[in-house]
């Protein structure tokens, strides 16, 4: 099957409005002959309540797309809508507030504070924001990520996979509308990667989270429900529940 045959124009899978969408998104770095067209008219709906992987070769525009969708970067043209709100026209302060309220982030580096326990790291963003902790939700997040017996440990006493699960719990506990994970297993060996990805998938299934993960690893993408293949700044394929064969075919295909 070719990637064109599995291309989906509506990826909402019956859950209503998408968690995030991009319309005719472009991003150009620089100008004149040296300009780099990192995104060349991306149209994308990220389905709510699903785990979406953004894949593609190095330099294809994955990070730029994620940064524009997450309000970390401003596109050159086009529109981004997250949780029903357009990001167009928001200044830096408005974007910062919007991100704090609606978006969770997980990065390759775990970014945990070494002198705080796992539990304290998970709760820190809520405390800094002066938000109340929903204890039942906290317990559910900690449970789904398998951290209940690790909460009193310092990051240095945890494995890499456990540290990344703490970082994921920290992102989920604030109940964001969408979580962006940028190469979340980039610092992990294959066993720890599998452990983190299966917990991430469980949080989508059991907590109804929406997760968008940028990865260049086929193995990582195989944990996702939907896979968006980016090539040369465009969406080459958007696969919904692909089989491993369909995924491999879409990644190999030069012409989507
Ligand atoms: P990927 O995440 O798929 O590796 P990127 O989104 O990082 O791709 O980059 C897409 C293109 O944009 C690449 O050609 C890259 O060199 C270029 N690019 C990314 N960020 C910048 C920047 N800040 N200034 C200039 N060019 C950039």
The ligands bound in this entry are: adenosine-5'-diphosphate
Structural class: alpha/beta
Helix content: 25-40%
Number of helices: 8
Mean pLDDT: 91
Rounded to the nearest angstrom, the distance between the terminal CA atoms is 11 Å
Number of strands: 10
Low-confidence stretches: 1-14
Provide the β-strand percentage band.
Answer: 15-25%
CATH superfamily of one domain: P-loop containing nucleotide triphosphate hydrolases
Please give the radius of gyration in angstroms: 18 Å
Largest sheet: 6 strands, mixed
Shape: globular
**Name of the CATH class of one domain:** Alpha Beta
List SSEs in N-to-C order. EEEHEEHEHHHEHEHEEH
**CATH topology (fold) name of one domain:** Rossmann fold
The appropriate CATH architecture of one domain is 3-Layer(aba) Sandwich
Strand order, main sheet: write it out. Answer: 6-7-8-3-9-10
């Amino acid at each position: 099957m070719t990637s064109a045959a599995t291309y989906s124009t509506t990826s909402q899978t019956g859950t209503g409005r998408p968690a995030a969408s991009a319309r005719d998104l472009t991003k150009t770095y620089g100008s004149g002959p040296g300009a780099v067209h990192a995104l060349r008219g991306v149209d994308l709906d990220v389905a709510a309540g699903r785990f979406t992987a953004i894949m593609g070769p190095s330099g294809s525009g994955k990070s730029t797309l994620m940064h524009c969708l997450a309000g970390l970067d401003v596109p050159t043209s086009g529109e981004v809508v997250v949780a029903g709100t357009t990001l167009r026209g928001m200044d830096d302060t408005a974007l910062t507030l919007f991100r704090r309220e609606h978006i969770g982030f997980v990065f390759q580096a775990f970014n945990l504070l070494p002198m705080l326990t796992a539990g304290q790291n998970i709760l820190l963003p809520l405390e800094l924001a002066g938000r109340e902790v929903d204890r039942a939700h906290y317990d559910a997040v900690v449970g789904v990520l398998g951290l209940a017996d690790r909460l009193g440990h310092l990051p240095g006493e945890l494995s890499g996979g456990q540290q990344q699960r703490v970082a994921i719990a920290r992102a989920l506990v604030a109940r964001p509308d969408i979580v962006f994970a940028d190469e979340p297993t980039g610092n992990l060996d294959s066993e720890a990667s599998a452990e983190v990805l299966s917990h991430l998938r469980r949080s989508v299934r059991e907590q109804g989270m929406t997760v968008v993960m940028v990865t260049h690893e086929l193995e990582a993408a195989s944990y996702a429900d939907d896979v968006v293949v980016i090539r040369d700044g465009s969406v080459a394929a958007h696969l919904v529940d692909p089989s491993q064969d369909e995924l491999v075919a879409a990644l190999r295909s030069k012409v989507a």
